[in-house]
Amino acid sequence: xxxxxxxxxxxxxxxxxxxxxKSEVVSWFRIQEMFRFDSIHMxxxxxxxxxVGVISIQLIKRWNMxxxxxxxxxxxxxxxxxxxxxxxxxxxxxxxxxxLGACPGPMFALLGSGLTVMxxxxxxxxxxxLAYGVLRERLPH
Amino acid sequence: MFEFLYEPWPWYVxxxxxxxxxxxxxxxxxxxxxxxxxxxHMCTACNISKANYFNYDWKEDGRxxxxxxxxxxxxxxxxxxxxxxxxxxxLAASTIEDLRALGxxxxxxxxxxxxxxxxxxxxxPGILILTLGGFLVGFGARYAGGCTSGHAISGLSDLQLASLxxxxxxxIGGLIMTWLIYPIIV
Lengths: 141, 186
Description:
The structure holds two protein chains of two kinds. Chain A has helices spanning 3-22, 28-35, 41-62, 83-100, 104-112, 119-135. Chain A is mainly alpha-helical. By secondary structure, chain B is mainly α. Chain B contains eight helices and no strands. The relative contact order of chain B is 0.10.
């Protein structure tokens, strides 16, 4: 990867982290508010993000658009037959998301905002990833 | 003129910008937006397990995403430190009331000091939230094959049924934690 490539993804990530903070998606309070159905805030953000995403992908597919390297844009579908993995894994993720009040992106954005204690849940999330990798063959998918 | 850098952005501004990340990443390099893959890349890069799941070329697959992660930390620094909003979050009154009833005392920042300080690691709810919460986020995201970005945003943007099932799972777990488990542990 060339320097300009790194720069490109670094800048996109910077924008992502900035907006995660400015939209307060990183806030434990906003996640509590969402799961208590007390405000449109998080639903509005996720809903509009999906709406913009759906329209973009439909246009990309309809017009057979290509990426910056001239390669056709294709999105590999997820294997929908693995229903157990999505329900069980998704529910475990949901338990963690509500407990910690942060999903993976926000954990790192919060660390950047100066909340050094986020190193603890980040290490714990890496331990969780490791545990999944080791146990994977024995878990229902 | 630059007040907007300090102020929180409304949901109807932030949502569409986050959604634009999906086509942006597809256009700049055919990449699919999904943050939690980075957790897998980091484990693989540390070479701590022989499991098949960590046997792949993490540099080839993950460099772009890990670079984005470093950017995300930088963006968090800009948004939450350099241009930090000095005001408390404008939460719904009913949420504040519920959280006060739970015993939360600090409403000033992005997260309550009640749980998110090094000192809070010495309290039962503090250490449980920071360690078990983080563990479940990592384990669950990789088990489900994606997190909020990969399933809720990317996957649903591509109208994938698998992602809809995963997001339903996110809410099953989230509602159980918020309504049934939090009142016990806090």
